[in-house]
Design goal:
The structure is a single chain. The protein is an alpha/beta fold. It is built from nine helices and 15 strands. It has helices at about 75-80, 90-100, 120-130, 140-155, 170, 190-200, 210-225, 310-330, 335-345, and strands at about 20-25, 30-35, 40, 45-50, 60, 70, 110-115, 135-140, 160-165, 180-185, 200-210, 230-235, 240-245, 245-250, 260-265. The strands form four sheets. The chain has a seven-stranded mixed β-sheet with strand order 9-8-7-10-11-15-12. A hairpin with a 5-residue loop joins strand 5 (about 60) and strand 6. Helix 2 packs parallel to helix 3 (about 120-130). It is elongated, with a radius of gyration of 31 Å.
Length: about 350
């Protein structure tokens, strides 16, 4: 059985064409491609590529300045952070969340909108394998060209499962029976009709957006569309730790906010999403809110929010009304019974 695309480049001794990541004594990384007869130059000296060709991964080379460098193949998270960029890349922490929370599986049929520099495409292709299908859409031809070069450089050539189309998703999407759709774009809500038609029942829509306004509008549009279940939204933050002797503490720098992720699943055709029973927070639909169910909606569709004091007062009023109704049904008001009792005593 043949190896999956790119697998041969991930193991064995270094050979011509391999990507190599050097790590200096201060932990800084340098990535380059091995070529016979070439040399790698730094401000600490140089060494010939031929010293690494045929050497096992994890070897140490020394420059003419006697500085040692550890040589390893770059991991995919390392590669996407060092590759040439057209647009900003999807960070590994977000790509990992997408692969897990969007349940990307081997052989999956995936549609991606917003290729950028090819970071997420590389993660998706490695997850779905040669038997899967990834159809990526990118509006800008220059970004598409950079992404193609980055993906082919990592896998050692074109990936058999990848198709890249230059154009808008909503205008060009013709794929059907799609398992997963990943949207990394400015306005995901504009693509919901096309995405809903392409997804199989139970399929997952995953959107990656940068701001809270984009997040809110996308979630509200998904709810209003009526073909998806209740979306889930979150963000991740990664904080590394310094561990040396008794000095065990968080590092001073961390990867904080990069973007928001949200997922929703496609309902079966003709099925209405169940009504939400969760009580919104006070002020969630205030005067400034103009989305679905807001002040611009009919009065019967506008959510009602009451304070605990208002609820207690209404409860007391209901109890008084129920008590008065009971007295009327008995045919003798409370005051009348009291006057009858007073007459009897006299």
């Amino acid at each position: 059985m043949s190896e999956p695309t790119g697998a041969a480049r991930r193991r064995g001794p270094f050979k011509v064409g391999d990507q190599v990541q050097l790590t200096d004594p201060k932990g800084r990384h340098y990535t380059f491609t091995l070529e016979a007869g070439k040399s790698f130059h730094t401000h600490k000296g140089a060494f010939p590529h031929d010293e690494l060709i045929g050497a096992p991964e994890g070897s140490v080379v020394r420059t003419t300045g006697n500085v040692a460098y550890l040589a390893l193949r770059p991991l995919l998270p390392d590669y996407v952070l060092s590759m040439p960029r057209g647009a900003a890349v999807v960070y590994p922490k977000d790509a990992g969340q997408i692969l897990a929370m969007a349940d990307i599986f081997p052989g999956a049929r995936v549609v991606e909108a917003g290729v950028g520099s090819g970071s997420l495409s590389s993660f998706l292709l490695r997850a779905i394998g040669d038997q899967g299908m990834l159809h990526s859409y990118e509006r800008r031809a220059d970004f598409a060209e950079i992404a193609t070069q980055n993906v082919e450089r990592y896998f050692g050539g074109p990936h058999p499962a990848w198709t890249l189309t230059v154009g808008d998703l909503q205008d060009n999407l013709s794929d059907t029976d799609v398992d997963r759709v990943i949207l990394d774009m400015l306005a995901p809500w504009e693509c919901l009709d096309a995405v809903s038609k392409a997804l199989v029942p139970g399929g997952i829509l995953c959107a990656y957006v940068a701001t809270t306004t984009q997040l809110a509008r996308t979630v509200e549009a998904i709810r209003e569309h009526g073909t998806f279940n209740e979306p889930s939204a979150w963000e991740t933050m990664v904080r590394t730790w310094h561990v040396e002797g008794l000095a065990v503490r968080p590092d001073h720098r961390m990867i904080g906010h990069t973007g928001f992720l949200l997922t929703a699943r496609r309902l079966a055709d003709g099925v209405e999403p169940p009504l939400r029973r969760r009580r919104p927070a006070k002020g969630a639909y205030g005067e400034d809110y103009t989305g679905p169910g807001g002040q611009s909606a009919p009065a019967e569709e506008q959510p009602v929010h009451k304070t605990p004091a208002q609820k207690l007062r209404e409860k007391k009023e209901r109890e008084q009304q129920e008590q008065a109704a009971g007295q009327e049904q008995s045919g003798q008001p409370e005051a009348g019974r009291e006057s009858s009792a007073d007459s009897a005593e006299s």
